[in-house]
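Researcher: Quick sanity check before group meeting.
Model: Go ahead. Protein one:
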Amino acid sequence: TLVCCVWCSINRCSGYSINRVKMALTLVTYPGNFRAFKALIAAEYAGVEIAVKDVDAKAAAKLSPTGKVPVLETPQGTIFESNAIARYVARLRSDADLYGRTFYESAVVDSWIDFCAHELELPCTLWVYPIIGYMPFSGPAYGKAKAHVSQALKTLDAHLLDKTYMVGEAMTLADITIASALVYPAKLAMDPKFRAQFPNVFRWFDLCVHQPQFVAVIGDVALAESEMKPDGASSAPQGGKKEAKKEKAPKKEKAKKEKAQAPPPAAAPKKVEHPLKILDKKSPSPLNGDEWKRTYKNNPPEVWKKKLWEMFDPKGWALWVCRFKYNHENEKQFMCANAIGGFVQRSDAMRKWAFGTMFVTGSEACLPIEISGCWLMRGDTVENLTEANDDALCYTWTKIDHTSAAGRALVEEYWTADVDGFLEGKLVTDGKLFL
């Protein structure tokens, strides 16, 4: 069902304005800290600018009550604990839906974040830290940690059996948090044999880490071809005292070697700016996409229709209608519904610069079954969308003349249509909103 779920976001509950996304935020951490990844990736999805400042352990001790990083410096003060920071960033932009689209989904997101903190992050660190020299090797603790990780992944694998994302039909902070915790274990310790036990987890993990928002923070994730072993693991599987002493000498050298392999949060791909981000800098548009989305969400059609044409900037934005090239091959309504859901999900890299609706009209009992949509996009081409989402190549894209009454009427019809209503004279059987 095409429903624009509006729930009490941070800017409403606490008097925060969406303009606060532009306030000065600095994340203080040490290079390569996986606990910083989740806030930085959430910021990429939400379009929040965060500066990163690297510090050593001695400097970090002065920044928070716990003496640990990451710490987020805001105009109001500092926020400590990585999950609190990630939640804060996610809530800065409610329209990014990183906390789900309903109160229920937001609670489920929190459930999985808590699960990650208690069932995954701790055993993952006990498994990986001895490998990179952050802590001494102890055979019993090391083996117990691996077993605990396996049990947690078994839970995740069962949950992801029939799901693309952890919660709902789009990326949320639950996905970001869990995937961030798995980056280093997947790169250093989880060999193909281990990963094969959890096919659903690593199918999902592969989807996550290849999203541009992840790549911008963590770079490319090369999965382990074999399990790296900590010093002393082969000679002291039980972690005896003598073996623990032997490993002290090479520990620093091992740590330096592995730290060099761990990429810092500010990865090289970050330097390559999205072409539309460059366009925003070179040719700013009076039409702010976020402002338009809030106008659409928070007003009845008679209000947003008037505002749309007052706000529309034909020099900086374009309106498009898209129609699936292979509508004549559609046989099952549910398959078409899945197709538009996937289309919206795979267009996520365009969220800051696009808005649109996708619909399925018709059913097995009311042929033909057709897929079409109507989009507002930054720039005067659909190439940025096709770069982000290959599925867009399966559609014909026709620019809408915003100056004609027919063109405006078509846009308004698409953006007011809903399931069980009619669109271009055809019964709507499913729809998705890209907001």
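Researcher: Fine. The other one?
Model: Protein two, sequence then structure:
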Amino acid sequence: WNSRLYSSSTMDSSNKLLPSFLYSSSKFGVTPQLVAPPAMPLVASPAEPVAPVPSMAKAIASAASPMVAGQPFGKIELNSPKYYAASLFGGVLACGLTHLAVTPLDVVKCNMQTDPVKYPSIPSAFGTIAREGGASALLKGWLPTLIGYSAQGACKFGFYEFFKKYYSDLVGEENAKKYKDFIYLGGSASAEFFADIALCPFEAVKVRVQTQPGFAEGWSDGFPKLVAQDGYAGLFRGLVPLWARQIPYTMMKFGCFERTVEAIYTYGMPKPKSECSKQEQLGVSFLAGYIAGVFCAVVSHPADNLVSKMNQRAGVPASEIIAEMGLYNLFTRGLPLRIVMIGTLTGLQWGIYDAFKVFVGLPTTGATPAPEKK
């Protein structure tokens, strides 16, 4: 009895010196029996043989098994809080990095929209900006771009996954399948409503920095200067035009993407999605994203011109800007460059987002076509 008591107390005290994951259950799935078996007497009698203790190598291998299986954060259930958190982070990577990468194109586009006389074409705009401000002028506004579109991407993708499930549950499984296009459009519109609130202050500073020479060098001096001139309300004066640009854009981005993915697997692939490799599925995501991006650019371009002008010319009402530009210029000025930029952006965003989902052990985005009835 004394021997057993000594053994048990010794084991309990030794456990306190070890990290808890080595002797208690954890997210990695290491069971108490795996590393710290029940206490046994130091001297075993023939009737009570000592069980062998599993090696530390086996414990580590067991703990790391989710990573080997492509689940670095453990198993993620669909539509769980962990799933939505992964969607938020995937959106940060997808939107923040891609918008940062095309900052030079964005600088040229914004200047062509706000001063078409000085910047009549894409090549001349690149040359004029680089000549007057140096090569670094093509990167103006990169920090508000990175922060703003990272925040927007988190809300856009994360909230889309949430609202898509929410509206599907609201109407029921049968109606969700029957009216899935409305689920896609409603979910994406709801997500973008909140995403633009997160983006708007950064977009306001970015456009001023990029289009007003001498206004500021970047976010650190541009933000306080804009607030000093227009107040905090000035950060959100472009919110309504931003909604007008981004909500139709995002509805097209997600609705067209979902339908294009389904069409590619139905008519363009020789095998169903479930039999495609991860690389093939990611290729489908990029292609469908690029196609959706072209439509996004066309649908949202008038509002994009309006947002650029309103942020450049503080205090001028939208009706006056539209009258000055004319409807034709409102719909077409800077459109070819924006089609290239948004098509590439959207394709890369869906590719990055789905690549991150695959990395954490989730399926790629896109409805699997229903099997044909025989």
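Researcher: One line on it for the slide.
Model: The radius of gyration is 28 Å.
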